[in-house]
Write a structure and sequence with these properties.
The protein has 230 residues and is of the alpha/beta class. It is built from 9 helices and 9 strands. Bound molecules: pyridoxal-5'-phosphate (PLP).
Length: 230
């Protein structure tokens, strides 16, 4: 099936999940995750109405952002970094990305702030939280979250917009629900302590409807739009 048809299906599924959860579908931003996807397909998605592209590697994104500009596509899009970020890539990353989803330590936050300051940018960020103890997934531990949120909020050139998580993969998406719910609870706790964290980046191709039911405001979808990755 083509990208256009896939996108229509995904958008429909987002809308139904939102309505089922008594939410406004407009409150859920679709991020098309384009890692390993080539530029012609990316441009097809943008022409079909995609406004946000998600990449997981800085170097791959660098190539694509450059050639996207050369193509002269007029649509204004956002590029988000959804994969983890190494400190030596921060300088390049902040030149490319409107939003970085993967802050998981104070030292990474400090490096992003230092580099952002140099180019006079206020970098929008999310904190990635590791909900599962057993997982090898990246992310800040729950117990360190408040310290990290406090630190970032007090940092001049960072703008903290919310939280992100990647649950383990389950065949049955319903099993991911407690992870999504926990991220929302952590957000609510932080808001009760006075922080503003409107965005919850959670949900991928196999589980985004559950994530929406649990409060996702950004879903990161690759396979369901572009097909299986090579
Ligand atoms: C690859 C990736 C996605 C998209 O995954 P799909 O299962 O293809 O939808 C979402 N988030 C992150 C962080 C990813 O690396």
């Amino acid at each position: 099936m083509g990208i256009l048809q896939n996108l229509a299906t995904v958008q429909e599924r987002i809308n139904s999940a939102a309505i089922k959860a008594n939410r406004n579908p407009q409150d859920i931003k679709l991020i098309a995750v384009t890692k390993t996807v080539d530029l012609p397909e990316i441009i097809e998605a943008v022409k079909a109405g995609i406004l946000i592209l998600g990449e997981s590697r800085v170097q791959e994104a660098q190539r694509k952002v450059a050639s996207y500009k050369v193509q002269g596509v007029s649509e204004r899009i956002e590029w988000h970094l959804v994969g983890n970020l190494q400190k030596n890539k921060v300088k390049n990353a902040i030149q490319l990305f409107d939003l970085i989803h993967s802050i998981d330590s104070i030292s990474l936050a400090e490096e992003i702030n230092t580099q952002a300051k140099k180019i006079n940018k206020t970098q929008r960020v999310l904190v990635q939280v590791k909900i599962s103890k057993k997982e090898t997934k990246r992310g800040a531990d729950e117990k360190d979250l408040m310290a990290l949120v406090t630190e970032i909020t007090e940092t001049s050139n960072l703008k903290l917009e919310g939280l992100m998580t990647i649950p383990p993969y389950f065949e049955d998406a319903e099993q991911a629900r407690p992870y999504f719910r926990r991220l929302r609870e952590l957000r609510d706790e932080a808001e009760m302590a006075g922080f503003k964290l409107p965005e919850l980046s959670m949900g991928m191709s196999n589980d985004f409807e559950i994530a929406i039911e649990e409060g996702a405001t950004m879903v990161r979808i690759g396979t369901a739009i572009f097909g299986e990755r090579k």
